[in-house]
Amino acid sequence: MKFAVLSGLILACLVGVNNAEANANDLASFHKDKGDGCKTCHQTPGKVADDSENYINTQCKSCHGDYAALKNPKLKIDPHDSHLGDINCTSCHKGHEQSKVYCNECHSFDLKIPFNDAKKKEAWDAKWDQQKIQQAIAKGPVESTDVVIIGAGSAGYNAAIAAKQAGAKVILVEKAPFSGGNSMLAAGGMNAVGTPQQKAHHVEDKVEWFVEDTMKGGRYANDPKLVEILAEQSAAGVKWLESLGVNMDDLKRSGGARVDRTHRPADGRSAGPTIIQALRKAADKYGVETRLNSRAEKLVVNDDHQIVGVVVHGKHSGYYMLSAKSVVLTTGGYGYNKEMIAYYRPTFKGMTSSNNITATGDGINMAKEIGASMTDIDWIQAHPTIGVDSRILISETVRGVGAIMVNAKGQRFISELATRDRASDAILKQPGKFAWLVFDNQLYKKAKMVRGYDHLGMLKTADTIDGLAKLTGMDSKLLASTIGDYNQYQKTGDDKAFHRQDMPLNVTQPPYYAVKVAPGIHHTMGGVAIDTKAEVLDLQSWPIKGLYAAGEVTGGVHGYNRLGGNAIADTVVFGKIAGENAAANALKK
Ligand code: MEZ
């Protein structure tokens, strides 16, 4: 009886919601039909919200609860329990227009959202309107601050917190409705040398080794002065992240590194989301003003070619100029800008990308417009192991922990720990231009991130090697002999076939797993030229006064090929340097 009443109630609610939903045109009219006035969402009805839509989001949460409350354990894929973290509800749920599931941009989930068939409006950020930019400049600044930081990924947050700690007034602008950029997608970790973590794991390492590995990986095209700073300040960078609430106690090896120096969260979670969550909180705590839905569109310089401000295009506030003595570009690379990829590397045209949809090279283009110099702008990295049929990166950590890589027939073809450029080239020469990462239950238990791939349905699983071969279409005998040989190499510590340096695990314990991978755009090594103070250089190699940059928007740190774990290191070390110097410049008398 009780069950009947309860199920009747649930049904009535569902029917009620469905009817209301069927009658309503969009989320706003749905609320209105339920008797909620405009004030439910809007502080002052008729008046535009702040660009970040903070008020609306507080209202959403006050009625529906926060993300923890919205988690639904019955769902296999729960969009309210994702690596995006505690982002704004309005990132996906739109009041007066078509709602949008951001997860579908990278995953092949095809998740549905209420009102995804509402009227589609032209996106507020569809255009860069030069006339409006010029009008904003002619009108002059509507607001003044010490430092503007453009782009809220790891570099942006680190710069913002460092500048704020140095005493500057900081505004951090981000074009997306959520923060995190590419950093939020980073699976691996942060390279650092001389840390207590390396000591605890008995890893001997040296600053010179870090420098040498990075230079070798970058084919010696890197700026050695920048690489030295990266290595020298990496341990302090890990300490700084820890001071902001990030745990980096696990240690793994990435391709091209001679020892384990990639620091990762000890709970096995992906590094990027963990770091971004902590940085978001720290930025709030230190009073950084973060403006979402706010795209910087023009750097403004005076007649002496010094930075005086930025034109920002806000979702609700339109075009306005912010005056600032210092501006820091932390806009990331151009790994999701198809035109720029095709222009700079025609052979990569149409290749899949692991990048966030925000990585469109805006900072590079803005800096170019005011005469910034570019370094290695055409060097683009393909990561060898992007999941086929999605844009999900299968972290290098999986190979670092012990997975082997085989081709469509089941044969190894390169050391799994080769640098990314070599591994990607090798995969593209295999039949079908893809590969399988193969591992066993030992690795499944050790590399916790693998459970995430399993959860996403990316793994093939079988209790025998033969079964795995059947599932994946590999040749059973070849796969068995590849694994047999590898296990022998692992036992003797001598990879006679491909000279893999580190073989922590054999492949002997069922169940066995395979994940299909292929190369995809991962990192754009080139970008604005910077000096050791993270000042942006002009075409004569002089600093453009007041302009700083850090992270993937810059060139020079990684040469022609970035090593795994060096991106987060770059964003932390140079983000902090850029923030500190931007603050010092803005505050000097
Ligand atoms: O730094 C990276 O890009 C990295 C470690 C990626 C990965 O494979 O996890």
TrEMBL record:
Predominant location: periplasm
Keyword set, alphabetical order: Electron transport, FAD, Flavoprotein, Heme, Iron, Metal-binding, Oxidoreductase, Periplasm, Signal, Transport
InterPro entries the UniProt entry points to: FAD-dep_OxRdtase_2_FAD-bd, FAD-oxidoreductase_2, FAD/NAD-bd_sf, Flavocytochrome_c, Multihaem_cyt_sf, Succ_DH/fumarate_Rdtase_cat_sf, Tetrahaem_cytochrome
UniProt remark on cofactor binding: Binds 1 FAD per subunit.
Domain FAD-dependent oxidoreductase 2 FAD-binding: start-end pairs: 146-567
Required co-factors: heme c; FAD
Keyword flag rRNA processing: no
Signal peptide coordinates: 1-24
Ribonucleoprotein recorded as keyword: no
Subcellular location: Periplasm
A Pfam family that the UniProt record links to this protein: Cytochrom_c3_2
Enzyme Commission designation: 1.3.2.4
Record family assignment: Belongs to the FAD-dependent oxidoreductase 2 family. FRD/SDH subfamily.
Designated name of the protein: Fumarate reductase
Source species: Shewanella yunxiaonensis
